[in-house]
């Protein structure tokens, strides 16, 4: 699969660790930065990865900041994006099964590289259940449309 990754300075180490694991798994990775510890603004990276996914240039995205919160909020502003902050295996599975999440987000402050790699693998391998969940996703899409300028 093709995966777009991004982080701010607070998530760069974890983003790089997940990037390496994804490459080792044979996935194609697009690294949207950041690339060092210089202070940057997380919305820039949330937007870049979210647009890759929304435009179909990537199948899924991975985003990391210090807490995972700001970068997920940013990504979720892009139409069609369902970015989920994940902190355990169950969340990795159910963000896909029930929410058809297309971006997984982590807080570097909370997740080890081992955990983030494991949660990302579960996320990528778990299909969407569809069925009754599509009714809810359609309602989310309707909220997006109603609030477009
Ligand atoms: O987690 C984050 C957003 O949710 C950011 O990584 C965090 O706010 C960056 O803060 P600072 O500039 O103090 O490193």
UniProtKB/TrEMBL annotation:
The keyword ATP-binding does not apply. One of its GO terms (molecular function) is ribose-5-phosphate isomerase activity. Its EC number is 5.3.1.6. One of its GO terms (biological process) is carbohydrate metabolic process. The active site is at 65 (proton acceptor), 98 (proton donor). The keyword Isomerase applies. Keywords: Isomerase. InterPro entries: RpiB, RpiB_LacA_LacB, RpiB_LacA_LacB_sf. Belongs to the LacAB/RpiB family. This is Ribose 5-phosphate isomerase B. It comes from Ruficoccus amylovorans. The gene is rpiB.
